[in-house]
Amino acid sequence: MLTRRGFISTGLRVGAGLAAGSAATFLSGCAHRVAGPATLPSVTNQITGSGSLKAHAAAHGLLTGAAVAIPLLRSDPAYARVLSEQYSILVAENAMKWKALRPAPDRFSFGEADALVAFAEQNSIKVRGHNLCWHEALPDWFAVTVTKENARQFLTDHIMNVAGRYKGKMHSWDVVNEAVDAKSGRDDGLRKSPWFEMLGPDYLDIAFRTAREADPHALLTYNEYGIEYDNEEEAQKRAFTLQLLRRLKAANVPLDAVGIQSHIRAGSSYSFGNGIREFMASARQMGLQVFITEMDVNDDELPDDDVAKVDHAIAAVYRDYLTTVLAEPAVTAVLTWGVSDGHTWLNNPMRKQRHPNRPQRPLPFDENYRPKEAFFAMRDSFDKGMSRNLVND
Ligand code: XIL
Asked: Do the Cβ atoms of 195 and 155 come closer than 8 Å?
């Protein structure tokens, strides 16, 4: 049984006009104004309002959203406008990670996270929290301050403070991110993360129980990557992930959803299908919802081709993948890891690029916020997906 907490009747509540107005109000107080809505393409009319991603998703009981870079939200009105017009749920790309929230062991810095929550509230958009416990994005002080002796206190204090601050405002929280490492050599496949090294497998139980205490309304989510494809490595990781979810459920640990990150690739020699289908069905049988939390399509493996061909291939992957996952009734939200190709982690300078002269194009909008083929593939997939008439509100 799914633990969905209300009817979705609100999907179309945010009309394009109202949303754009609120975005403008939000931005009017910001210092750096850049190019305004005039830069939006004429095709905008057919893709907003009843033509938006969120309207097409809502018609089938789905939420759809994107990861948000708060500096962009503050500086770029066109970005804010696309967010308000297209999405029913948002997540901070970085602003709610430890590194962003914890400048020092005894200090919290909520400016960016608060800005996202305020923007979402003004535009009647839901928010996912990402994340409360991860082996990455830890502040520099962490390694020299957190020890076996105080780790439990640091973890519970952090969760009580952060999830407590947004209590009642969050759709869901990624409570633990990426706890499985099939290559760890352990029978349970748990990653030897700093949290694991200090607290053992129990760190997950502690994190979820504390999150429930801090915010009883948020859907508590376990979020994982590398579980999408039908190959041996990912099949093994799916098995370890299910083993973990079952253990948590058996121990009565509060857990409402599993997030499948969905950083997938165009031109891959692997395909997806039965593996992820069975994984999602198993999650449903445990009473979990399934969220597609960080979808994007890496085009590194495509030939160094012209952009139209790249975009076409990427859209085909969006279509295939979303058609596959949306056949599963437990899937209630689809989020991409970013909005436009102008800002994607896949083009971060730190990452090695196979095609240095052709930046990656993994997202539904191009660098000028024009909808790409992938946008239409998303919309079509929402249309074709089965109807879910219940999601949490
Ligand atoms: C990424 C951000 O997009 C980057 O800006 C940052 O430098 C590193 O983290 N899985 C996750 C996300 O759960 O938090 C990651 O986000 C992408 C992979």
From this structure: yes
